Amino acid sequence: MQARKMRESRIVNTDQVLLNDLNNYNSLFGGVLMKKLDSCATLSARRHSRAKECVTASTDSIDFLCSIFQTDSVCIESFVSYTGTSSMEIFCKVIAEDMMSGERRIAATAFLTFVALGDHGKPVPVPGIIPETDEEKTLFETGQDREIDRKHHRQKSKELAKFITLEKPWDEHEEGMQYDHVN
Question: How is the chain classified by DSSP, letter by letter?
Answer without folding.
Answer: ---EEGGGG-EEEEEEPPGGGB-TTSBB-HHHHHHHHHHHHHHHHHHHH--SEEEEEEEEEEEE-S--BTTEEEEEEEEEEEE-SSEEEEEEEEEEEETTT--EEEEEEEEEEEEEE-TTS-B-----EE--SHHHHHHHHTHHHHHHHHHHHHHHHHHHHTT---S-SS-TT-TT-------
